[in-house]
Design a protein that fits this description.
The structure is a single chain. By secondary structure, the protein is α+β, with helices and mostly antiparallel strands. The chain has 2 domains: 4-223, 3-Layer(aba) Sandwich (Rossmann fold), CATH 3.40.50; 237-345, OB fold (Dihydrolipoamide Acetyltransferase, E2P) (Beta Barrel). It is 23% helix and 32% strand. The protein has 8 helices and 20 strands. The strands form 5 sheets. The chain has a 6-stranded mixed beta sheet, with helices on both faces. Strand 16 (291-300) and strand 17 form a beta hairpin. It is elongated. It starts with a strand and ends in a 22-residue tail after the last strand. 38% of the residues are buried.
Length: 367
């Protein structure tokens, strides 16, 4: 297990800035997911940690050692790519053993490590088969086995499940998490898929346009997004954002939506233009609700339904029970759970400081 520290990491490719002054501590033994849309800088960050890209400026420390200028082979880190990069003419056994042979590990130790990795990944039955004819899931396990046998300081994974179909990707998410629990090694995993991040991560790092916007547990990221972007990116459906009448002053515990008062947790800052953020499951249908609208769609999802309501402030999505659907055209009022509302400065799109926030004890649903 290793602690990885990024200090003011910056990477430019010509005039393009891929990663901008990123500082982050990845604690030993944690499963950390770098999450964000394509082009946000997550893969470049991972490649700099691996030594496959050298930063323009800043530092990378592994267990306190400055490795910023060291190449990949000097960092004792295992990298698993989206494309498996296996040797199709070799057997599974020889693919897994390949890095150990290059390190001149003894034959007896190679056999021991390969057998142990194969048992952990449940691929003993294919050790003597060529990799060229294997399924995507088996090839993924072989790629993981090749990383495991090296016993590295950390595992770095760049969208390793991206080529798998949805059902198998879900299964492999569970397998990767079980593998992490068994090994206890520091893992840094890149994906653009929030479902993968929520299923596996101890900590999620949300990135956009080369910057880290928020880092924290899945519950923290979901319940208290620090920017409008994070609230929109995390959650399915995403957080609703409604423009407040006027602004807000420090000490306020009420805002106006379309002239109607709405109670909110105390706000500790002034802002001239404000957005109220609230998750669909924290809105409820209420004949006397302050916000009025009409149902335009009812998305049935088995365990629950999502009502799509058109209001004067825009589309609002409301999570309802599986038997609580309403036909299109129904006029409804909407009310909000006070303790679950958040206020954002519309100019900066950042969360305004306010009353102490705690993650709900029951966890609540997160998409």
């Amino acid at each position: 297990m290793s602690t990885i520290v990024l200090a003011n990491l910056h990477k430019r490719f010509g005039d393009f800035t891929a990663v901008r002054d990123t500082s982050l501590t990845i604690t030993a033994g944690r499963f950390v997911v770098l999450l964000g849309p394509s082009g946000c800088g997550k893969t470049t960050t991972l490649r700099m940690i691996a030594g496959l890209e050298l930063p323009t400026s800043g530092q990378i420390l592994i267990d306190g050692e400055d490795v910023t200028a060291l190449r990949a082979r000097q960092r004792d880190i295992a990298f698993v790519f989206q494309m498996f990069a296996l040797y199709p003419h070799m057997t599974v056994r020889n693919n897994i053993a390949f890095p150990l042979k290059n390190e001149h590990v003894s034959r007896q130790e190679i056999v021991r490590r390969v057998d142990a990795a194969a048992h952990m990944l449940r691929i003993e039955n294919i050790l003597d088969r060529k990799t060229g004819g294997l399924s995507g899931g088996d090839r993924q396990r072989v790629a993981l086995g090749r990383a495991i046998v090296r016993q590295p300081k950390a595992f770095l994974m760049d969208e390793p499940l991206g080529t798998l179909d949805a059902d198998f990707r879900e299964l492999m998410c569970l397998e990767l998490r079980k593998l992490h629990n068994a090994l206890g090694a520091t893992t840094v995993y890149v994906t653009h898929d929030q479902s993968e991040a929520m299923a596996m991560a101890d900590d999620i790092v949300v990135m956009n346009k080369g910057e880290v916007l928020q880092a924290g547990s899945p519950h923290e990221i979901y319940h208290f997004p620090t920017t409008v972007f994070v609230g929109n990116f995390i959650g399915s459906p995403p957080m609703n954002f409604l423009r407040v009448d006027g602004g807000v002053t420090a000490g306020s515990e009420q805002v106006l939506l379309q002239g109607a008062p709405v109670s909110v947790p105390r706000c500790d800052a002034d802002a001239a233009s404000v957005l109220l953020g609230i998750r669909p499951e924290h809105i409820f249908i209420d004949d006397h609700g302050p916000l009025r609208g009409n149902v335009i769609a009812d998305e049935y999802l088995g365990s629950h339904q999502v009502l799509v309501v058109e209001t004067a402030l825009g589309i609002v999505r409301v999570r309802a029970g599986k038997d609580d659907g309403l036909p299109a055209g129904t006029a409804v009022g909407l009310s909000f759970h006070k303790d679950r509302t958040l206020l954002y400065d519309a100019a900066t799109t950042r969360l305004l400081p306010g009353a102490a926030r705690t993650i709900p004890a029951n966890g609540d649903s997160h998409g």
